[in-house]
Each structure stands twice: as structure tokens, then as C-alpha cells.
Amino acid sequence: MPAPENTFKTRLLAGETLWGCWAGFADAYATEVLSTADFDWLLIDGEHAPNDLRTITAQLQVLQGKHSQSVVRLPVGNEWLIKQVLDAGAQTLLIPMVETAEQAQDLVRAMRYPPEGIRGSGAALARASMFSLHSEYVQTANAQMCLLVQVETKKGIENLDAINAVEGVDGVFIGPSDLAADMGFPGNSNADAVQACIKDALARIAAAGKSPGILATDDATVARYRDWGARFIAVGIDVLMLAQAARAKARHWKGQ
Q1: Of 7, 23, 116, 131, which has the fewest CB atoms closer than 10 Å, so is most exposed?
Q2: What's residue 30's pLDDT?
Q3: Which residue in the list 48, 67, 134, 252 is annotated as catalytic?
Q4: Residue 170: its pLDDT value, please?
Q5: DSSP, residue by residue, 232-243
Q6: Domain that holds residue 26
Q7: Tens digits of per-residue pLDDT, 166-210?
Q8: Residue 81 domain-assigned (yes or no)
Q9: What CATH number did the domain enclosing 71 receive?
Q10: Any residues with CB less than 8 A from the CB of 182 and at least 6 apart, and which?
Q11: Cα gap 184→47, rounded to integer Å
């Protein structure tokens, strides 16, 4: 039995626009609740949320078989972190702070078994192969790996065309907040210069045959990024959605 199909990757390759949401509670119960909204993908955040290997694994488990496909963001593109989370069953990774083609190439290799890469082939005892139920996992897994690299600095933008040219990079995600800060506009990704940079970057990613991605939390900005060609778009962050709804409810009743 081969490795399971990565339908997130299949749908991106088919040209679909996929709508997602950040899962930042670091808790499988909350992520399962979020999955009932039927977003196309949910980002399990290991960079800015308090996730570890076990909480990531638990969220992968509750999303198995759901419409919402899992995307795991690691805190850094470390080869052994990548190996562990792939063995836990992740197939799509978002890696932050990618600034060079060399970094991207190293990430491609970390996600693939030899001879295409350096991933250790211990999946027989891992969840990725369903504990050897998928007997052909090692032979077929490479084709189902999906690498999304996050470009969010001036250096990354300068090297964007080289990053786009790396075989095995499936999508490039623009990080508006960090990019704005690095461009001298901390906390203001709507600055004209930042928006112009994002628009240009999304167009260059698409022209290179890669899938452009981005995050926005207000509808007007989401629509603008969609119109600029973004193809996998996160439209909310669960932690903020709860906080905003709770604060609005409190203000309503306390103001009566």
C-alpha cells in the first residue's frame, strides 16, 4: 500500500484556490472544533504557538479524514525537526524565514528519502506509514511531500526568483508582518511600499509556476491578495477569532 495522497498538494497543482485558517491553540480539541468549519487547510503553528511534537501529532490525528488538510509550520527548517514531524504523519510543511535558494534546496532534501534527499527511513515504526500498514510508504512518500517556504524579509525578496526556481518547492508564502518590519514599517503591513512589494512577489511566484500563499485577517485585504493571485490564503487566526468574539460580547452586555 503506497503513501496516502496529499490532497492539499493535488488541489494546488490543479490550480484551485484553497482557503485556510491558523490553528494556534496548540490543542487537538480546539483544532477539531475548527475543522467543523470546513476550511480547506488548517495551519498547525509550531513557530508562534506553544506546540511540540506531541501536540502537533494529536492535531494531525484529529484532522485525519477531515475536509481540512493539515499544514504544519515548524519554528525553523531543522532537518531532524522535519524528520520527526514527517514521521508523525505531516505531509505539508511551511518553513519560516527562508531567504536563499540554498536554504530551500536543503529543505527539499530534508523532506525526501534518498537518493533525492536525506530523510531517515525509519517510518516502519511511525504514524506516517500507519505503523507499516502502508508497506510501500518509503518508496512512494517523496511524491506526496509538499514544501511551502515562507519569504518574509528583504533578503528573501531579493532572492525570490532563485527560490522560485528550486525544484521541490511547491509554494511560496509571503509573511506580511515580518516583511513589513524588515522594510521599516513594524506593525504596518498596509504601508504602500509593503503592499507594492507583496503584489510584485505574488506575481513573480505565480509566473514561476509556484503557488503563492499569504495570511490576512480582514476581508478587504483577503480579497485584495486573492485578486493579486494568492492561491492558498489563510483568512483568520483561531485565537484572535475567539478573543475578538469574547471581547465584543462582553462590551455589548457590560455597556447595557
Answers
A1: 131
A2: 98
A3: 48
A4: 98
A5: EEEEEEHHHHHH
A6: 7-254
A7: 999 999 999 999 999 999 999 999 999 999 999 999 999 999 999
A8: yes
A9: 3.20.20.60
A10: 152, 153, 154
A11: 22
